[in-house]
């Protein structure tokens, strides 16, 4: 049910805190770089916690993986300066959204991509994407439930990479609003299918009206790929 | 439980024949290019059947996909000459085996790859693979249960392709013995980990002793990728 801990549903934060609690024999909270919604995946989520426990880094990695369900894995552990905060210290984040272009379903990837039956006009999608790169008010690209104080964000890169039947939409930016990547992808797909002009993005940014942007793309195609920091790492495993 | 129909376990052949039966309101058998074992995947399995029913090709594709469980999908349908036989008419087949090279597990791909913690010496693996290309008696590379009358097969290509943390072993050949690809991969991995010399493959081919080849690689990394025919296709969808 997504990252954030909930009372009545299993969440990534919940199972990680439970495993850490068993490993360290205490209760603690972990802070992530951001909350992923239910159905969204992460290849490179970063979470931090403070402990006075003396478990070595390799013990955290292998110990937690032994306690976690198999659809949650710890890839690495690092000791960082005390002031490090997974969310506030992040310099930029990269998301990847997988579009599967095929008139017929596949037995693979149905939980990790959004299948589109109609062909996509990549040149039009790239033209639309070009208008989104840079610093803008992304009010039209945030969900109603977004509680960020303002909607100005910077997108450093918005690339479309073809890999066979898959089209990867890769977005790198300084920070993201709630559902921002999924609404961007939904809008670019409408452009790719010829249901919206690439230039319509300019008006969306200027007017900030969520109801005029594209539909929110389904969660299962979205991956939090990488979070970057310039904090020095004191020690890391592996 | 693999391709071949069984009484007490769900199989791919079983669910396909059941769906076809519902669509055509009759009982029939389908013939595949080969049986995949339990846990092995297929991206391009080909199966044929005879019918006098008048369902259009697009009706087979979408009708079957509506009736099949979501982990089995029909990618395309084609009408072929009456003498076509998925197994006997095959000119060559391509298998792909996915090795995931990482000291830590991933939440993704655990059902579609074999994870190896130790680094692999690719040059040694390629040297070992080179000895397998061509026409040989592959007796050392068939499982005890293999009932083929002889073990001479031709491997056209045996390539190792790096894709980030993944290493794909791609094997193309005229036909394959039972577990042949998995035993080849198991042997190449032992070479890559330095537990066996690349030249040992020459002796394995000459002596034909299964017990001296590598362990059978686990099924979940193996994909039947493509089966090629030179039969003319009368009509196809999509």
Short description:
Chain A has 238 residues and is α+β, with helices and mostly antiparallel strands. The first copy, chain A, has helices at 12-24, 57-67, 122-132, 180-192, 200-207, and strands at 31-32, 41-42, 47-48, 77-79, 92-101, 114-116, 134-137, 152-163, 166-173, 222-228, 235-237.
Mind explaining what this structure looks like?
- Two copies of one chain form a homodimer.
- Chain A has five helices and eleven strands.
- In chain A, the strands form three sheets. In chain A, strands 2, 5, 6, 7, 8, 9 and 10 form a seven-stranded mixed β-sheet that branches. In chain A, strands 1-3 form a two-stranded antiparallel sheet.
- Helices cover 24% and strands 24% of the residues of chain A.
- In chain A, helix 1 packs across helix 2, helix 3 packs antiparallel against helix 4 and helix 3 runs parallel beside helix 5.
- With 238 residues, chain A is an alpha+beta fold.
- Chain A starts with 11 loop residues before the first helix and ends with a strand.
- In chain A, a hairpin with a 2-residue loop joins strand 8 and strand 9.
- Chains A and B meet through loops of A and loops of B.
């Amino acid at each position: 049910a997504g990252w954030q801990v909930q009372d009545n549903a299993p969440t990534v934060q919940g199972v990680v805190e439970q495993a850490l609690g068993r490993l360290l024999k205490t209760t603690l909270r972990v802070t992530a770089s951001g909350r992923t919604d239910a159905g969204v995946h992460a290849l490179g989520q970063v979470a931090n916690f403070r402990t006075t426990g003396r478990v070595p880094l390799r013990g955290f990695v292998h110990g937690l993986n032994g306690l976690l369900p198999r659809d949650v894995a710890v890839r690495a552990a690092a000791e960082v300066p005390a002031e490090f905060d997974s969310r506030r210290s992040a310099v930029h984040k990269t998301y990847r959204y997988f579009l599967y272009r095929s008139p017929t379903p596949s037995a693979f990837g149905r939980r990790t991509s959004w299948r589109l039956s109609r062909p996509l006009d990549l040149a039009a999608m790239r033209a639309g994407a070009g208008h989104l790169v840079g610093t803008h008010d992304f009010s039209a690209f945030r969900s109603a439930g977004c509680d960020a104080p303002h909607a100005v964000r910077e997108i450093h890169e918005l690339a479309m990479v073809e890999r066979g039947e898959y089209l990867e939409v890769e977005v790198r930016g300084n920070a993201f609003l709630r559902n921002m990547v999924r609404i961007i992808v939904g809008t670019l797909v409408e452009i790719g299918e010829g249901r919206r002009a690439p230039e319509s993005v300019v008006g969306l940014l200027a007017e900030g009206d969520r109801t005029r942007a594209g539909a929110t793309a389904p969660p299962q195609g979205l991956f939090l790929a990488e979070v970057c920091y310039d904090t020095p790492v004191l020690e890391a495993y592996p």
